Amino acid sequence: MRTYLVTGGAGFIGSNFILYMLEKYKQEIKIINLDSLTYAGNLENLKSVEGLSNYQFVKADICDKEAINQIFETNAIDRVIHFAAESHVDRSIRNPEVFVNTNVLGTLNLINVAKQAWETKEGYLPDKKYVQVSTDEVYGALEGDEGYFYETTPIDPHSPYSASKASADLLVKAYMDTYHFPANITRCSNNYGPYQFPEKLIPLMINNALNGKNLPVYGTGKNVRDWLYVMDHAKAIDLVAEKGKSGQVYNVGGHNEKRNIEIVTMIIDTLLETLSKSDEHRSNISHDLITYVEDRKGHDFRYAIAPDKIKAELGWEPETPFSEGIKLTIAWYLKNREWMERVTKGDYQKYYEEMYQNK
Length: 359
Ligand code: NAD
Ligand code: TYD
What we know:
Blueprint: E1 2-7, H1 12-25, E2 29-35, E3 55-59, H2 65-74, E4 79-82, H3 89-94, H4 97-118, E5 129-135, H5 160-179, E6 183-188, E7 191-192, H6 201-210, E8 215-218, E9 224-226, E10 228-229, H7 230-243, E11 249-252, E12 257-259, H8 260-274, E13 290-293, H9 308-314, H10 322-335, H11 337-343, H12 347-356
Parallel strand pairs: 1-2, 1-4, 2-3, 4-5, 5-6, 6-11, 7-10, 8-13
Antiparallel strand pairs: 9-12
The structure holds nicotinamide-adenine-dinucleotide and thymidine-5'-diphosphate.
């Protein structure tokens, strides 16, 4: 039985990954989910696996050396899948420090402990792997409508978030290059799907539209993101953890480039198509809710990933076209309106008021 330490498993991608892995491998694997439960961590996402004997939750901070050490001392960890991070660009612009603490120092702590636990006189224990879940944002931005990010594209982050992720990547690279630490780095594009916190574009727009609130589009709405359905991403990480050649970086992209305004328009159209005429929220929804607001500072124009290497070496391709993924996602949010109500209570209101007060 392989044992996984998944960090940040109560967040959006981490919880989808855990659900995917436990469904796929059943009792063949054990997962320890380590998460400090920041505003973005929600154990409700993992309710369906809570009672399983091969799933365990540990509330701890990735910066806490003793807590991580203890997990390695009491379990034979075979894989570390490192999702835990501060993940929102707008928050990083307002408060960069926590991004450096968690994303940089937390990652350093984790690779230090894993390296020590896995090291032997001859090298490393067999069949161990650390996966650093990173982002295409470390490459900076593409200025026009042409071109893609490759693994060889120079690192050139712009936001405090992407700078902290790039720093973490470089530390992992240093451990791979200096100590031959058995690791991979994956750099994926924007994920979407169930359980995403409504500070990010897609769930924020769905939630606002259902409540008849303005849909705040930054700047011109022409910025481009390359959308990846979260379950396609989970499959890629599993594949990289099993078959990725140690020391390699893999880009994971959706081949789903869309301008932000196209996304917002599709959300409105899909909601109107999906909601029954009698739904109390339907009358709230209209294209008139679209509101162009002040642009994000340093707003990266376009992200687009070339996932050629992961396709050629590992046979991974994105399976979910955006037109299908957005329907699945909206259907999930409509079915789980109570989830949304619960996560948007309390601190979320304060965040929203502060973030969008002048917009
Ligand atoms: P998220 O914000 O939804 O979840 C992050 C999780 O990490 C939360 O459960 C939170 O409680 C936990 N966490 C934060 N700080 C912690 C700490 N100090 N110790 C322990 N746990 C901590 O993020 P996400 O969208 O699921 O992203 C997961 C990873 O994927 C991140 O590393 C992010 O940089 C990367 N990524 C995300 C996207 C995307 O579109 N969401 C795209 C590219 C890369
Ligand atoms: P986001 O989901 O924050 O992801 P990232 O900044 O990591 O790509 O934003 C996606 C795009 O949507 C980005 O170009 C900023 C834009 N955006 C808006 O126009 N309005 C919003 O309210 C938010 C949250 C994002």
